[in-house]
Design a protein that fits this description.
This protein is an all-alpha fold. About 75% of the residues lie in helices and about 0% in strands. The chain contains six helices and no strands. The longest helix has about 35 residues.
């Protein structure tokens, strides 16, 4: 069976781009993120390369890239928790639905990151901290809320600026026929 060289190049480009963005996410989150000693807080921008994957390739690839990023990063640093990885997958999938092929305004971007911050960062992650790390429910929700209060504004500003300044260049890497 003959394969189409253009399709093969597109598939290789997609895999290489996702791998590069996954590696960049690991570095930005696990190695350049700020996590004060003996705390569950982490200030990081590892979401941004995955947001680029979401812009280009949509929810499946963004979810897979964020899941791979968390699995690899956790294996190297803190230890794998599959439920935290599932939260990261969910976050990537939601970014893929929200940002694939679309140029969004600041209001949509802010609303998206606030809602996902509440749902994923607080409501989904807090029970994991209670059941797997021994936090009280109050401490888990407080810790996750503080983390969201710090990370959500950073996500809004960085995504919006990235999309506005480099969105057109980034979308040049999108597969043909996916422009909107």
């Amino acid at each position: 069976m003959q394969s189409n060289p253009a399709k093969v190049r597109t598939a290789i480009r997609r895999i290489v781009m996702c791998a590069a963005m996954t590696a960049m996410s690991i570095v930005l989150c696990r190695f350049l993120g700020i996590s004060p000693a003996n705390s569950a807080f982490r200030i990081e921008i590892g979401f941004l390369p995955i947001a680029v994957v979401a812009m280009l390739y949509g929810p499946v690839w963004a979810g897979a890239a964020y899941g791979a990023s968390d699995l690899i990063g956790a294996a190297v640093t803190t230890g794998i928790n599959p439920f935290i990885t599932l939260c990261k997958v969910l976050f990537g999938v939601l970014m893929g639905f929200a940002f694939k092929g679309k140029r969004r305004g600041i209001a949509f971007t802010a609303l998206f990151f606030v809602i996902t911050g509440i749902v994923v960062d607080i409501l989904c992650m807090a029970p994991i901290f209670v059941h797997y790390f021994g936090y009280t429910a109050e401490a888990a929700f407080y810790t996750r809320a503080i983390t969201a209060l710090i990370n959500v504004p950073v996500r809004i500003v960085l995504y919006y600026l990235t999309e506005r300044t480099m969105g057109a260049r980034i979308r040049k890497f999108a597969p043909k026929g996916s422009e909107k």
